[in-house]
Specification:
Uracil-DNA Glycosylase, subunit E; 4-stranded parallel β-sheet; globular
Length: 233
């Protein structure tokens, strides 16, 4: 039987765009191979993954280390089949937008005065230098959060630390407790850290609306001659 996650890991390592990422210890010392083997065992036992195996490393493949301008951290993929495409908060399903993404788009519109996007695919952001990384790159279809302790957290930590160490000026947008827990990995002398509550409507503090992360990130990037990002979709 084929090992689809193992095959995708091999393709990731062979992709010239991933050179910066695949030097992380996670990909060198067997950590990635252990996670891939665990996932392939689950698939062999009948489990379905979200996103599909071919999209698992998509965030790192679309946004090379040397092109990162902004980092947005999510928790794990949308669990419904066909909704996730490997990018944090990105939605490609056929129903209405998820509530958290609606809140993000509402804040984007209020902050920058651009119309809220009608579609949830954030691929254009990833291609423009916005790393959209989930703390766990996979979940089981139909269930959220079940792969958070599978070994992915180490990768998220290493990615944040590598961006902090190797990039000259990056805006980190940390929304919610999971993302904010990694703030200590970021060198604030070099980078901008914007922390707020999660955009989810379950966030009772309602401390995401009005946080203006998009304009604040662009204003800071402009002062660092890093070039503003185009948030339009």
């Amino acid at each position: 039987m084929t090992a689809p996650v193992g095959a995708e890991l091999a393709a990731f390592r062979a992709d010239p765009a991933t050179e910066g990422w695949r030097r992380l210890p996670f990909f060198v010392d067997g950590g990635a191979d252990a996670v891939a083997a665990a996932l392939d065992a689950r698939i062999a036992a009948g489990e379905r993954l979200a996103p599909r195996p071919g999209a698992i490393f998509r965030a790192l493949r679309l946004t090379p280390l040397d092109s990162v301008k902004v980092v947005i951290l999510g928790q794990d993929p949308y669990p419904r089949r066909g909704d996730a495409n490997g990018l944090a908060f990105s939605y490609v399903g056929d129903r209405s937008l998820p509530p958290s993404l609606k809140a993000i788009f509402a804040e984007l519109s209020a902050d920058l005065g651009i119309p809220p996007p009608r579609r949830g695919d954030l691929t254009a952001w990833a291609q423009a230098g916005m790393l959209l990384l989930n703390a766990a790159l996979t979940t089981t279809e139909g269930v959220s959060g079940v792969h958070l302790k599978l070994g992915w957290a180490r990768l998220a930590d290493e990615v944040v630390a590598a961006v902090s160490a190797r990039r000259p000026a990056v805006a980190f947008l940390l929304w919610g407790a999971n993302a904010r827990s990694r703030a200590g990995l970021i060198d604030r002398n070099k980078h901008l850290v914007i922390e707020s509550g999660h955009p989810s409507p379950l966030n009772r503090a309602r401390d995401f609306p009005g946080s203006r992360p998009f304009s604040r990130a662009n204003a800071w990037l402009e002062t660092r001659a890093a070039g503003v990002v185009d948030w339009r979709l």
